[in-house]
Every structure is written in C-alpha cells, then in structure tokens.
Amino acid sequence: LEYSDGKLRILTGSLVRVSTGMRSSTQSPKKLFRLGISQSIVLGFFLLLAISFVVTGFHFSGLNQYRQHFSLFQKTSNATNKMLKFDKDITEFQRQILAFSNTEKITNTTQIKSLHQQLAADIQTLIADDSADHQTKSQLLNQIYIAIEGLSEKVDSLDSQRNARKTIITQLIQGQKQIKTQVDQLFLLAEKT
C-alpha cells in the first residue's frame, strides 16, 4: 500500500493500466488501485461489518448448541430428581410398613396406603416423561410399576396380619402362662415329696 496525494494505492509487481474515468494512463508497476480516504474508510467499514456477521453467525450457532445441551441437562436433571424422590418414598414406605408391623405407633394403614398411591403416581409420571429412545429403561419402569401395583393387596392385608399376629401372640402368652403354672405345680409336688 502506498499513500500519496490524498490517494491510497495498492502496489503490485506488474504494469497495470488504471482508468480514472477521465483519462487512462499506464502507471508504474507498483500501483494497482487508487482509493481516496473516504473510499478506504467505507471499504474498512464493510470489511468490519462482514467480519462481524461471520463472528455473530458462529456465536449464534454456539448459543443454539448451548441451548440444546442445557435442555438435555435440564431433562436429565428433572428425571434424576424424580427418581431420587421415588427412592426416598420407597424407603419411607418400607419404614412405615415395618413401624406398623412391629409397633403400635401407627394405628391404621391410611398413611401407608396414601404413600403407596403416591409411589404408583410417581412411577407413572416417570414412565410418561421417559423418551422413546430408552426402551429398556421404559420396560424396567413398567416392571417397577407392576411390582408396586402388586403391593396393594399386601398393604390392604397389613391390618389382618397385625390382628393375626396379635391373636398368635396372645395365644402364646396364654400358653406360656399355662406352662408356667404347670411347671410351678410340678415343683410344688416335687418339694412335697
């Protein structure tokens, strides 16, 4: 590039004929174009504008990929949170069954039945949210749902099991008392003889 007489010239190594519109002349081999300052500024502006469009295009593409990755992360995170809640509810369900079976703190199965229904609803939500891409995962979730639904009869029978256990314990205690009475009588007879 060369600047002289208010004109910017691009230099090359060959003879070029430059037309100015009014006259044509043969220039030295080093001068290809003559640009005025205003033309140079406009050319620079358009080059910067073109570079800006290219950079904006790359950034837009990157943001679109970021959005796709973030939505995948959000979907996976939501499914994980639902599964963790389901796991926590299963643990609570087991704890309540054990507490009902082994203590008198829980007097009826209403809370256990409610939690059982919540578990069934949670697993149905997980099945509905699952994508078709994971057929094996869907099959496992369906198996879990069937197993949870199968527990409904067992949850309903908890009261009768508790009553049967109470009856057996009462009978065992009565039998133990009878055995103790008979053993005491045997010792009394043995002391007399």
In words, what does this structure look like?
- With 193 residues, the protein is mainly α.
- It has 4 helices and 5 strands.
- The strands form 2 sheets. A 3-stranded antiparallel sheet has the order 1-2-5. A two-stranded antiparallel sheet has the order 3-4.
- Helix 1 (37-102) runs antiparallel to helix 2 and helix 2 runs antiparallel to helix 3.
- The radius of gyration is 44 Å and the shape is rod-shaped.
- The N and C termini lie far apart (137 Å).
- Mean pLDDT is 78; it is low at 14-25.
Low-confidence stretches: 14-25
Overall radius of gyration: 44 Å
What is the overall silhouette? Answer: rod-shaped
Give the termini separation: 137 Å
Strand order of the largest sheet: 1-2-5
Q: How would you characterize the largest beta sheet?
A: 3 strands, antiparallel
Order of helices and strands: EEEEEHHHH
The count of DSSP E runs of length 2 or more, i.e. the number of strands, is: 5
Mean pLDDT: 78
Helix content: over 70%
The tally of helices reads 4
Query: Helix- and strand-based class?
Result: mainly alpha
Beta-strand content: 5-15%
